Amino acid sequence: MKKIIFSLLLICITSSVWADGNIDAGKTKSALCAGCHGATGKNPSLNFPNLAGQHAQYIVKQLKAFKAGTRVDPTMQPMASTLSEQDMADVAAYFSSQSRTGEKAEAATQGAAPTSASVVKAPEFVADPVAGKALYELGDESRSLGACVGCHGKDGKSQVLIYPNLAKQHHEYIEKQLHNFKAGTRTNFVMNQFAKALTDNEIKNIGAYLADTKAVSGAKVHKATVHSAMNESAIAGQAKAAVCASCHGSDGNSLVPMYPKLAGQSANYIIKQLKEFKDGTRKNSIMAGMAAGLSAQDRIDLASYFSAQKTSKGNGKENSLGKKLYLGGDVKYGIPACAACHGVDGLGIPKAGFPAVAGQQVDYLKAQLDSFHKGERANDRNGIMRGVTRKLKDKQAAALAQYMSSL
Ligand code: HEC
Ligand code: HEC
Ligand code: HEC
Ligand code: HEC
Fold first, then answer.
1. Which of 108-117, 148-157, 185-194, 372-381 has the lowest mean pLDDT?
2. Which residue of 1, 176, 287, 388 lies most exposed, with the fewest beta carbons within 10 A?
């Protein structure tokens, strides 16, 4: 149910319209797809992705992208171009109703799939699924690379309908997609940022992990304790930050409840805010004045400095209402889980510019939730936060502010 509500919310936000899919009709129509993807969407051939158990909306979105040519693939483009919106909804409903977890993948319809002549070559590099798991679950702070688990879910089973399931997908396919995102030949704002940060060997490690997450389920992974050394830009930023210190603290840990902490905040997020205070997209008279004189290089330097600082402990108290809403949302009020975007630990998704909320001043957090709720703060892309807070009650906002600050 939570999934449904979350997706409904996203539909409202993006105001796209989805046709209702019919599983039985989809089964009939999927005959066209069976040759490559397998009759039930499971396919032993490494060249074709598994579709079984994938989120229906994700399948529809990809089919539309292939049809429109925004996702480029010479095989799928002609396939998708023959499908109407109803066809897409039907086949998506069918494939998503199938299971990917069976022991053996089903054989593709005999002879129909074009067989690949290429034999898998012995790799010079042996992929390490445990290293892949570590990167997937923990990311890498030293490069401000967020964890994949926040969106794609534990063991690749995503709980959020817009984020595809990755579990039990062929590693070749995963790797190919990551290379496509990296090269920009497949476009998605978030995934392009993530993939760019990955090395070829890391992509292989992640592929090896996702192909069989069970194999390494017992392996414990540890966060590499890296202290992000201040780079040149951060050092320049430290000098420029002197004028910010009176309100935000010299290391970005403000001591005044109404002034937000900037320490440990996502650099991309800080840059975006400073730009928007300057051009008036985010309205605040104090910060408009502060941001007016900053150049693009100043913004980068300040953001590098503050994001490299350690956040001090917040003044909020853990509480059950806040925790419940933050981690699980509330179906009745149409509130999605905040953790999906701000992270279970409140550290946000720095690369994507999703702000950290952990340890932040309670008063500041509450003020921002109220401001999004009233629509006064309207610099959130696609109205994400205005949608999230639309039905939020004052008591819930107060509990959330306490909880986030306590993280
Ligand atoms: C001739 C083989 C072939 C046929 C037939 C085919 N596909 Fe595909 N499909 C592919 C290949 C190859 C890819 C991977 C494209 C890439 O690498 O980006 C793909 C990718 C996809 C994806 C994206 C999967 C993901 O995880 O992002 C979807 C969805 C899809 N196909 C649906 C369908 C549907 C529905 C049909 C039937 C109407 C169909 N395909 C028929 C070969 C085929
Ligand atoms: C902020 C959320 C988010 C994070 C974090 C994230 N992804 Fe994604 N990922 C997405 C979305 C959204 C898509 C679908 C893009 C599209 O619609 O084409 C996607 C697509 C993918 C795909 C293609 C799936 C398919 O079936 O074609 C792969 C592979 C992938 N992500 C791997 C990763 C890896 C590995 C990481 C961590 C290094 C990661 N993602 C982090 C949101 C995210
Ligand atoms: C006189 C006090 C004051 C000074 C000096 C000041 N700020 Fe701010 N700053 C604020 C206030 C108040 C807010 C909250 C604005 C709001 O409520 O929208 C804020 C918000 C911000 C935010 C947004 C934080 C978030 O989590 O969204 C950033 C980034 C920021 N300031 C950066 C700076 C930088 C960089 C400087 C120095 C160049 C600076 N500020 C100087 C008072 C100040
Ligand atoms: C779909 C992703 C998504 C979800 C779900 C989400 N947020 Fe956000 N949130 C964002 C983004 C993106 C921003 C930054 C907007 C901008 O660029 O100014 C943000 C900003 C915020 C801010 C302002 C941070 C600051 O430093 O000014 C707060 C507070 C916040 N969110 C709290 C929440 C709470 C509480 C929930 C759950 C009830 C939630 N968010 C759910 C994406 C999300």
1. 108-117
2. 1
Residues 297 and 340 in one domain: no
Q: Are residues 60 and 86 in the same domain?
A: yes
What is the pLDDT at residue 343?
A: 87
Q: Give the model confidence (pLDDT) of 17-69 as tens digits.
A: 456 889 999 998 888 788 788 888 987 677 788 899 888 989 999 999 999 98
Residue 8 lies in a domain: no
Query: 364 C-alpha vs ligand 3 centroid, how far in Å?
Result: 11
Tell whether 330 and 266 lie within a shared domain: no
Q: Is 298 in the pocket of ligand 1 (CB under 6 A)?
A: no
Which atom of ligand 3 is found nearest the CA of 355?
A: 26
Neighbours of 355 (CB within 10 A): 22
Q: Which of 255, 278, 307 is the last residue of a domain?
A: 307
Give the total number of structural domains in the chain.
4
- Domain end marker among 253, 273, 307: 307
From atom 14 of ligand 3, which residue's Cα is the shortest distance away? 259
CB 108 within 8 A of CB 45: yes
Distance 385 CA to ligand 4 centre (A): 5
The whole domain housing 375 covers 320-406
Rounded Cα distance, 234 and 305, in Å? 4
CB-based burial label for 197 (10 Å; 0-12, 13-18, 19+): middle
Q: Which amino acids bring their CB within 6 angstroms of ligand 3? A: 243-244, 246-248, 258-260, 262, 270, 273-274, 284, 286-287, 290, 302, 355, 367
Looking at residue 191, which CATH number applies to its domain? 1.10.760.10
Does the CB atom of residue 89 touch ligand 1 within 6 A? no
Please provide residue 145's backbone torsions phi and psi, each rounded to the nearest 5 degrees.
-95, 115
The answer on 338 and 396 residing in a single domain is yes
Say whether pTM exceeds 0.85. Answer: no
Question: Does residue 302 contact residue 270 with C-beta atoms inside 8 Å?
Answer: yes
Length of the chain: 407
